[in-house]
Amino acid sequence: MYTGGGTLPNSTMATNLLKNNCGEEQLEFWELTENGGSEWRVEEMPGDCGYAFCDEAVSKYFATSFELCMKKQVVDLLAEGFLPDALDAQPAVTVEDWYCGRSDCGCTYQLDVRLLDENQEVLQDFKPDPVTLDPDNDDCSWKQVTHTFSDYGPGLRFISFEHGGQDSKYWDGWFGVRVTGSSVTVQA
Questions:
Q1: What integer is the mean pLDDT of 124-151?
Q2: First to last CA, the chain
Q3: Integer Cα distance of 38 and 43 in angstroms
Q4: How far is CA 52 from CA 45, 65, 166, 167, 168, in A?
Q5: Angle at alpha carbon of residue 149, lines to 34 and 14, rounded to 5°
Q6: Is the pTM of this model over 0.70?
Q7: Neighbour count for residue 156 (Cβ, 10 Å)
Q8: Which of 30, 40, 82, 174 lies 20 to 30 Å from 101, alpha-carbon distance?
Q9: Per-residue model confidence as pLDDT tens digits over 41-63
Q10: Cβ distance 36 to 65 under 8 Å?
């Protein structure tokens, strides 16, 4: 996991620019843009009525509640060591997220990723329709969403990554969508 600072290592493997992507540091580095219901919390895999994750190294996830819970990180690419010329060449930007529901309660999941210029104006965004998981009709196990940005024009300086959701039965506690393993990588 990339912990920030300095220039990126020279390798063909891109480094995840999101900090604390699996909740190992509780909610550190995340801005809680919506913190409804019983609020965000970090739980241990697989959790009550939960599902095993495909990577045993991931031991925690973020859990949402009965009102909307959204959290965000804005990555400053210049502060991460990227050069303006390299960013203006429009390198591929790939985002990934993992989400799941519980076996006893439905939930919704949302994702909104934006490529931003120096004034934090949107160059391009990826905001799929919210996903509803219903344990009576769906497989609520861990699912991956991934997207690669390209042809977004020069000027990329920041990346905003925001995700979350809530439960669909309005139950007190943490019965909403679970998220973990988020990543943002830039192929520079």
A1: 95
A2: 18
A3: 14
A4: 7, 20, 20, 20, 22
A5: 90
A6: yes
A7: 25
A8: 30
A9: 999 999 999 999 999 999 999 99
A10: yes
What does the radius of gyration of the chain's CA atoms come to, in whole angstroms? 17
Contact 147, 111 (CB under 8 A): no
Whether the CB-CB separation of 187 and 94 falls below 8 Å is answered with: yes
Cα distance between residue 119 and residue 128, in whole Å: 24
When pLDDT is cut at 50, 70 and 90, the band that residue 140 belongs to is confident
Report the alpha-carbon distance of residue 130 to residue 83 in Å, rounded: 34
Mean pLDDT for the chain overall: 92
Res 9 pLDDT > 60 = no
Tell me which residue of 80, 87, 94, 99 sits closest to 22, measured CA to CA: 99
**Two structure tokens written together for 38:** 């019983």
Is residue 64 over pLDDT 90?
yes
Output the pLDDT for position 11. 39
CB contact at 8 A, 79 and 66: no
Q: Which two tokens stand for residue 29?
A: 């580095």
Biggest CA-to-CA distance, the chain:
51
* Helix, strand, coil abundance in the chain, percent, nearest 5: 5, 40, 60
